[in-house]
């Protein structure tokens, strides 16, 4: 996925202020509260450079990370090796996963499911998750809540990061598409997978 080639090199720097620890602790709490059995294995889909997988490994989980971007995975593998973590990383599209095992839990952190921009993409992702999840176990993901986005309207943001010889300026100028896409998603007849 070419869009992430250069982005991968700056990803960790752009999100160094993100509270990955709090997110992983919350997910662990969800596992302990809602899983019918002890969660031992986690599949992290859309893992990127994978701070989440590293923290989950610290918590004692067996973690596999999947991403489309080989550039992101190279950085994830390097971090895991430096920290002596045994995490398996696989390059695949989450919509069409074909792994040889099932997992006790699957996570898609940091709006990964929001990158599925069509109903079919989202359905394919859910089908892949279902195929790789042990019976009656948990899929934890976050999404942009459509009504809030339409009500609050996306706003432009600028983030400037300076470190030694680097200066990164990230400008985001979001555009809200017509509400028709949201209506199409919400009023589609139910389909069970």
What does this structure look like?
The chain is of the alpha/beta class and 193 residues long. It has 2 domains: 2-143, Vaccinia Virus protein VP39 (Rossmann fold), CATH 3.40.50; 146-183, no CATH class. The protein has helices at 5-14, 20-34, 51-58, 70-82, 119-132, 146-152, 180-186, and strands at 41-45, 62-67, 88-91, 103-108, 133-141, 157-163, 166-172. It has a 5-stranded parallel sheet. A two-stranded antiparallel ribbon has the order 6-7. Helix 1 packs across helix 4 and helix 2 packs across helix 3. The longest helix is centred in the N-terminal third of the chain and has 15 residues, at 20-34.
Q: What is the element layout, followed by pairings?
A:
Layout: H1 5-14, H2 20-34, E1 41-45, H3 51-58, E2 62-67, H4 70-82, E3 88-91, E4 103-108, H5 119-132, E5 133-141, H6 146-152, E6 157-163, E7 166-172, H7 180-186
Describe the structure using short key phrases:
single chain, 193 residues, alpha/beta, Rossmann fold, 2 domains, five-stranded parallel β-sheet, two-stranded antiparallel sheet, 7 helices, globular
């Amino acid at each position: 996925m070419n869009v992430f080639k250069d982005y991968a090199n700056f990803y960790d720097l752009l999100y160094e202020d993100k509270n990955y620890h709090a997110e992983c602790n919350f997910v662990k709490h969800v596992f302990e509260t809602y899983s019918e059995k002890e969660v031992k294995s986690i599949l992290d889909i859309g893992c990127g450079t994978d701070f989440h997988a590293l923290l989950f490994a610290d918590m004692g989980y067996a973690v596999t990370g999947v991403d489309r971007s080989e550039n992101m995975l190279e950085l994830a593998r390097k971090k895991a090796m430096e920290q002596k973590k045994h995490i398996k990383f696989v390059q695949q599209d989450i919509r069409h996963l074909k792994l040889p095992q099932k997992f006790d839990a699957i996570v898609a952190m940091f709006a990964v499911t929001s990158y599925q921009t069509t109903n079919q993409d989202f359905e394919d992702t859910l089908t892949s998750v279902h195929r790789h999840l042990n019976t009656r176990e948990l899929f934890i993901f976050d999404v942009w809540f459509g009504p809030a986005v339409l009500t609050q309207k996306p706003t432009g943001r600028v983030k400037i990061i300076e470190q030694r010889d680097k200066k990164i300026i990230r400008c985001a100028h979001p555009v809200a598409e017509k509400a028709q896409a949201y209506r199409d998603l919400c009023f589609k007849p139910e389909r069970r997978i």
